[in-house]
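cron nightly-structures :: item 1 of 1
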Amino acid sequence: MEENLIKTCLHDRHVKAGALMSPFGGFDMPIQYKGITEEHNAVRHEVGVFDVSHMGEVRVKGPEAYKFVSHIFVNDVTGAPDGQIFYGMMCYENGTTVDDLLVYKVNDEEYFLVINAANIDKDVAWIKKNAEGFNVTVEDESPKYGEVALQGPKAEETLEKVLGIDGKDIPFYNFKTFPIDGEEVIVSRTGYTGEDGFEIYGSHDFIVKVWDKLMEAGVQPCGLGCRDTLRFEVGLPLYGHELSDEITPIEGSLSMFVKLDKPEFIGKEALAKQKAEGVKRRIVGIELEGNAIPRAGYPVLVNGEKVGEITTGYKSISTGKSVAMAMVDKPYDKLGTEIEVQIRKKTFPGKVVKKRFYDKNYKK
């Protein structure tokens, strides 16, 4: 099994730096370097860099690119300026989630889709299958790109000082391409951490150079461990936990990204029905009393009856509280509802809270 893991272009750098490596989405990825807490705090207060070369990239081009992307994507890209980025989901006919993704609008005839590592093969097959009958080409460019995410309040300053890239004119959820070293480098400003930050996409050689420059400048390398604690604290979902092929965006409490007033898209009917009739369960936040740590899969109880399950849980590094996201049956999803979480043989009291446990600090 381990031999089949894909290595990113920065794999040697991680091993040399003594990172703790572990399988993630079919890749051999760094989980931590110095430690999750230190890396988490570097991103919250200064700057850190992640190897996210495991993410997938798909390019959709052709006269019907806009029409096709609208057909497979729940968010509305209509009339967007070139360079804008949208977050949303691709759904099956029944409304459950194929994947959550970012759609980069290059122009009306070209879009760049960024998908989750564990879903690359499944997503590409699904996109290609649904492209039949549309005048578009679908190209899986995942093997071509390396990617790093520079995240934290000092990300913009670091991008310019260390890499010589001017990011101040890139608004939040936008991207630009820069001609650097004879190639077109994509720089976007989204962030999956709740902090300001940039994603840099380029050839493997280019990304290795970028990483080396950042290391020389003393930027903290960060593993997937703190990527999870950071995204979790600001209520961002992770596919396989808060979204899946058994969970719809409405159940995931992400209905703001589902634009039912746009023309048909795959899953629209099922999602419209859910929105109109209400769902039987949804993702909420939970705060526990004391220091017990709720983990994914632990049951959520009311009066001894199971009413849900933890999807992600931690002792929040930024707030010190024991918190979790959980899929909970209605009506126990209301704010302030008293619940218990079963951790091994004991139960611990808590309550339903908002699923954003820490305020985002994006560039306004």
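cron nightly-structures :: done
The radius of gyration is 21 Å.
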